[in-house]
Design goal:
This protein has one domain. It starts with a strand and ends with a strand. Helix 3 packs antiparallel against helix 4. Strand 3 and strand 4 form a beta hairpin. The protein is globular and about 55 Å long. It contains four helices and eight strands, in the order E-H-E-H-E-E-E-H-E-E-H-E. The chain is an alpha+beta fold. The strands form two sheets. It has a six-stranded antiparallel β-sheet. A two-stranded antiparallel sheet has the order 6-7.
Length: 155
């Protein structure tokens, strides 16, 4: 099973410090959620760093997603998230029905003295990727109306 980042559309009255408890209680039953493969998040991560967000332990806004923890995307971040995700939807919509993206560079040892670097590739289904990104864009649209937040749970 691959690692996954989860995104939830939640009511805005949830406090950041309560997110983990909320997540533990609602992870499997909440209907407004979407999971994105970790390799895909890493692939688009440079553009996610443009998104204003909030994370636990920080009193001021920061940018991007907390890779290992909880991130809240509020009204101001939702507008930028919407723009970024729509751009990726356009790009991935142009992909073949099955496509591969470069992932990790790993060291492969052949014996005690020899080895080489190998690039890993992850295969994706275009329709599933586009569908999941459209869900996130819908979460961002709703969040811009001011009654919700997007909760991101990292790996």
């Amino acid at each position: 099973m691959s690692l996954e980042h989860e995104f939830f559309l939640i009511p805005k009255d949830l406090k950041l410090e309560d997110c983990f408890d909320w997540y533990s209680e609602n992870r499997y039953t909440w209907k407004d959620k979407v999971g994105i493969d970790d390799s895909l998040i890493r692939y688009i991560n440079d553009t996610l760093k443009w998104i204003p967000s909030l994370k636990q332990g920080k009193t001021s806004e920061f940018y991007g997603l907390d890779y290992y923890g909880e991130t809240i995307i509020n009204y101001s971040g939702a507008k930028k998230l919407y723009q970024v995700i729509l751009a990726w939807i356009d790009i991935f919509s142009a992909a073949p029905s099955k496509f591969k993206l470069a992932s990790e560079l790993i060291w492969v040892e052949e014996n005690e003295t020899d080895g080489y670097w190998k690039r890993e590739y992850v295969e994706y289904d275009r329709e599933l990727v586009v569908e999941n990104f459209k869900k996130i864009s819908q979460f961002a649209e709703v969040t811009q109306q001011g009654n919700n937040f997007i909760l991101h749970i990292g790996i």
